[in-house]
Amino acid sequence: MTIHIKRLSDGGMSADAELPPAQRAVKKPIPLEVRRMPEAFTVETLEGTMQGKAGDWLITGVDGEVYPCDADIFARTYEVVG
User: Number of helices (H) and strands (E), helices first, in the chain?
Assistant: First the structure.
């Protein structure tokens, strides 16, 4: 059986089955290679081709995977350390 989950406009979720209780977690402090891109770009990711805007970040993950990150999300989620 596959549970179908949908995000609601109020930020909540709706599911067609009961979900397990939510837990809290924080990202581990794993250094990643990041590049702030000066212009729009496309990148081949594990999920397919994705687009980034000028000012977005290109992140190389712990296994060498690459993906774009919106500048606003990056600012809320990451801190550049060097």
Answer: 1, 7
